[in-house]
Amino acid sequence: MDNQGESEHIVKSYEQELGRLKALLTQMGGMVEAQAANASRALVEHNATAAGYAVQDDLAVDRLEREITDFAIRLLALRQPMAADLRLIVSSMKIAADLERIGDYAANVAKRSLVLNDMAVPFSLSGVANMCRLVQENLKNTVDAVGEGNADRAIEVWRSDIMIDDVYSAIFREQITYMMEDPRNITPCTHLLFMAKNLERMGDHATNIAETVYYAITGETMPSDRPKGESSFTVNRQHGV
């Protein structure tokens, strides 16, 4: 093989490796999406089977995170990437770590749902159901942003996290009220608060991924202060954010 042919082969092999890295991230994102969906069904629909799926899939997610990290380290060592490729490979490890944490929180929600199902609860699950929906929407957009390399979707996730925070705050106030009214409500309300907090953290990690995706694509960082409450920021991709 002449030098030109060898060079073309190396470039093609490298591109295939980058493609595999992206495919692994997309696969892991899909698995975590399924975990989150099952955790939501376990909580809102009192579905013990869905809870079981959310918990058992956590091991597979953990294995995939290790595979992505090992593969990324290998690429860094052997390919010595630069610029956008370097950002992609380093970012893939951060994205995998955040996805793994989302999976952990989903499993926690599923486990607590099994306990809550056996209790008499004084509250409606409509608020937490809404929170589950928002978290799943943000997670889907996050995974799509990873798979498509789409900075606009990443911005959408970053801006949308405030809605999850607002719902969590409302649930927190509601549960505190129930606990103050009757001490018998303390145990079920506490379980629900822990689950709501896990959902809120799932949203935070989805936003972490969105920030990482945006940086990997553009080389720019989002503001360190995320939107809170009614605040909003204008993100201008041409001039940074």
TrEMBL record:
Principal subcellular localization: cytoplasm
One GO term of the biological process aspect: negative regulation of phosphate metabolic process
SUPFAM superfamilies: PhoU-like (SSF109755)
Chain ranges of the PhoU domain: 25-112, 129-213
GO cellular component: cytoplasm
Keyword Cytoplasm: yes
Coiled-coil ranges per UniProt: none
Keyword list, A-Z: Cytoplasm, Phosphate transport, Transport
Subcellular location: Cytoplasm
TM segment ranges: none
Family: Belongs to the PhoU family.
Protein purpose: Plays a role in the regulation of phosphate uptake.
Subunit structure: Homodimer.
NCBIfam families documented for this protein: phoU_full
Family annotation (PANTHER family): PHOSPHATE-SPECIFIC TRANSPORT SYSTEM ACCESSORY PROTEIN PHOU
Name the UniProt record assigns to this protein: Phosphate-specific transport system accessory protein PhoU
Organism: Acidisoma silvae
Gene for this chain: phoU
